[in-house]
Specification:
Length: about 375
């Protein structure tokens, strides 16, 4: 047997490795986002130079030398900055359009009901049957305030609606009616019945192939020509239906993408346990689909809110059209930039709020993981 040799040399250890670099420091964040390479550093420098040149001037124009309130436009003429006084001077026309002046309080209540209930709907612990009941009651209250004719309220025709109440009502109606219609169109497009599939495909492709302006013109000008003599449909209702159908066509394609993303095993498992078609869709498939398409659907919802500005071309005074009318005053017309900036901030706040809420829902549902 060969002898076993035992070495008396001490074991050697590898040199200690340096600790990992911190990734939560400001220096690392700046280096990763702004100075990662030479091109990034040059673009960062140019951006800083542009900000250095423009921001001080913008601050002086918008805040330091601005006129915030005055009843005499001559004060704005003498000022070197912005004339924000046009907002308190014309805000009622900008926010309520052609709505009767003495009934603006009803428009304020409509805005408060829609925005307040929308904010409550973002709280997940309030999602229940009672929230749907609250929306139904709110809808009845909104149309009661807008139309009047009951409870001693003065009757107001839809041709007098305008401003932010009209924008919010049309937006909510478009989304509430468009999402279910889009889901049905997406299911119909994937139907095994050729007639239903062909009808859904034809509708979706025709509507998506037309600009919204054309759809609104068809609803406002062409559609009444095909109605029987003496039969008329309100212009607001025609515009609402046109906006809803246009939104539904795009929502249908979003939902169809989600349906295609569901693994085939989900359909087979639902068939195995004996679920019929509608049970399979409502309990198994569509909940997963809406979770997948949430980011894309929110994009369409925000676009629908911005698309409400197109109704101005058919004579409805949305908030943008009302602002354009308000600045026609010869005394204040030169300060239209400030008026449009006010509307820009209004749209940005509402769209940004919807975007952040979408991000929160995506994070809660762990979409993408």
């Amino acid at each position: 047997m060969a002898p076993i040799c035992i070495s008396s040399a001490k074991p050697t250890h590898a040199p200690p490795r340096p600790p990992p670099q911190r990734t939560d420091s400001w220096s690392h964040w700046l280096r990763r986002n702004f100075f990662q390479n030479a091109g990034s550093a040059v673009m960062t420098a140019l951006a800083l130079w542009a900000l250095f040149v423009t921001v001080p001037r913008l601050v002086r124009w918008a805040f330091v030398n601005a006129v915030w309130y005055t009843q005499d436009a001559a004060d704005c003429h003498a000022a070197a900055g912005a004339c924000w006084a046009i907002v308190p001077e014309k805000y009622r026309v900008m926010l309520f359009g052609t709505f009767p002046y003495e009934e603006h309080w009803r428009g304020v209540l409509v805005i408060a009901i829609v925005l307040g209930l929308s904010a409550l709907s973002t709280i997940r612990r309030l999602w229940s049957y009672w929230l749907c009941v609250a929306w139904l009651v709110a809808t009845a209250a909104v149309f009661t305030l807008l139309l009047g004719g009951v409870f001693g309220l003065r009757p107001i025709g839809t041709h007098e609606w305008g401003g932010l109440p009209l924008t919010l009502v049309m937006f909510v109606g478009t989304v509430v009616g468009g999402i279910p219609a889009g889901i049905l169109l997406a299911l119909g497009r994937r139907s095994k019945m050729p007639a239903i599939s062909a009808l859904c495909v034809g509708f979706i492709e025709i509507v998506r192939g037309l600009p919204l302006v054309t759809v609104l013109f068809m609803a406002s000008l062409m559609f009444p020509l095909f109605m029987p003599e003496g039969v008329t449909i309100d212009k607001f209702l025609r515009a609402q239906i046109a906006m809803t159908l246009f939104f539904a066509a795009y929502a249908a394609e979003v939902v169809r993408g989600g349906l295609q993303a569901i693994p085939r095993g989900q359909y087979e498992a639902a068939d195995t346990v004996g679920l019929n078609y509608w049970q399979k869709m409502t309990r198994i498939i569509l909940p997963q689909v809406m979770r997948i398409v949430l980011p894309s659907m929110m994009n369409e919802i925000i676009r629908a809110f911005k698309n409400t500005t197109f109704v101005g071309i058919i004579g409805l005074f949305d908030v943008l059209r009302a602002t354009s009318t308000a600045i026609q005053d010869p005394v204040w017309v030169r300060y239209s930039i400030e008026a449009y900036l006010f509307i820009f901030i209004l749209y940005f706040v509402l769209c940004f709020a919807m975007s952040k809420y979408s991000e929160r829902v995506e994070r809660d549902l762990a979409v993408g993981r």
